Task: structure prediction
Amino acid sequence: MTPFKSISVVRAIALTALAIAAIALVSLIRDQNSVVPDVLTTAAKAQESNLRVAVPTFATSVTLNDKQLQSVEVGPVGYHDFPVIKNAVGSIDFNEDMTVQVFTPYQGKIIALYAKVGDEVKKGQTLFTIDSPDLLNAESSLISAAGVLDQTTRVLTRAQELYNSHAISQAELEVDISNQMTAEGALRTGRDAVRIFGKTEAEIDKIVADRAADPTLVVPSPVTGRVTARDGQSGLFVQPGSPPAVYSVADINTMWMLANVAESDVPVFRVGQEIQVALMAFPGRTFHGRIWSIDAMVDPNTHRMLMRSEIDDPDHELRSGMFANFVIRVGDPEHAMAVPVNAVVREGDGTNTVWVTADRRRFDQRVVKTGREEGGFRLVLDGVKPGELVATDGAVYLSNMVVIGQASD
Result:
């Protein structure tokens, strides 16, 4: 074989090998391209299948038998008046306009105190007594005036006898008469001076008759009410008008409620508006009152304003510091569509639903948009129409049937 022929054979073999390798590579790439999409497609189908299984289907209707219907009450969707109101919180306090600070009218040392904080006292009831030197001086002057009167009376009686027997002149008799009149005036002045200290006529008569001064000054309560503070102690020397007052007494027929209302609500409040007050201490009860005063300034830090309301408390049940909620009507009532509160069920996802029926046996669950609650009714903004029948009681029972799987599709 010639050299040229050998080269041709080798070249042919090499070309053949290259062609076979190329064909194999193309087949391999084709197989891989076909396998990858198949794998992706299979995974996607499996994921889609899993997602479909994870999404539950909820029943929205239940059909009740005769026994189950006994647990459900049905009524039509109607209208209810919802008052336009504002709410706020506050605390009970004594009526400062009816609170009296009781000072001693004269200086002296406290002898005894007869009332404690929280005691209810009557007007004129003794609160405390003091040993008063001023009273002692006044009683001493009274006793002295009474003695002078007795003396001038005896002198005048003797002078009249002497005058009748012509033993003295008319001028001498008139001097004794003048002395008698002066002594009587001094006695009246002395009695009035002692009366100012609170002594009665009977007590004054006893002082005059016994010729014995009683320096005990009785300080009574000026009003009927409750003792709100006591700052005096036995043996303490007190002076008129020197703080603190020995006692503070408040008229408790009315109490104040202090409330800090939001700045945005201030324009709707007016002095004299009637309010309703609910207290934690008296659940289920309502106290009535009226707005007494509104401060002229808004707190720049809290953007709230202090409002005082006068609350009627004829039975004296309220206590200072009690927490209170108050409601005030600030406009005409809103006549709106409503259902009883028990007709609305709050589901686990936060939605509100009602159960609507046409034949009073099959009930369909329906999502509704609700508003505020008032007087046992819930305002309904959307989801039902007036006149439709809904489960007014037993709606929770129907929702539970859905949960446990007793509902019909």
Residues 3-54 form the longest helix (52 residues).
